[in-house]
Amino acid sequence: xxxxxxxxxxxxxxxxxxxxxxxxxxxxxxxxxxxxxxxxxxxxxxxxxxxxxxxxxxxxxxxxxxxxxxxxxxxxxxxxxxxxxxxxxxxxxxxxxxxxxxxxxxxxxxxxxxxxxxxxxxxxxxxxxxxxxxxxxxxxxxxxxxxxxxxxxxxxxxxxxxxxxxxxxxxxxxxxxxxxxxxxxxxxxxxxxxxxxxxxxxxxxxxxxxxxxxxxxxxxxxxxxxxxxxxxxxxxxxxxxxxxxxxxxxxxxx
Length: 254
Description:
single chain
């Protein structure tokens, strides 16, 4: 059984909450081995909760396998152009539901990217289980953040595990943290995963503790997205994303 099949129950978290959860209108809480994972339903935790879910072709928009890239200190269109977006497509602001259903589909070796803004942040959503920025910023000069630009990318890395958070804190350093860990650099983003229960430590040696550890790992994507949402003050409307209401561009694979 692959990782996505093993954690299928996570796809139901956004709607039903995890097994043993204490539910409210805004959060779901899971306690395991004395640790608590708290995920905000109103921010971006829903993206993580569907992180192991395949695409749903019946939806006019996106739900499963979304990897977001967020940036501040840079203009929205400039960031998208740096990712390879076409100027004419940007000007049209075509909703995802219209472009995604167009005849012929997207060109080979490209991906759809839905985008928007929240507060100071530009965000880009891709649902192929990876992030174009994460695969390309070391290869494509235009993707490298300039002085003062901050990038937070959560890439599920379906095709190149493990899932990681990448943080460029505005000084052109690139910090990496696998899900369940922090960057180890004491960055401002490191505190948020600890508060959300998204830092679970090393794998235990005992078989009994291993079971609880794996249960916590299943909840990690939602917790990681909760942490990133809290750090960025980011909230992305799940209904709008699933309906394909946000604008879209086609960007090349890197």
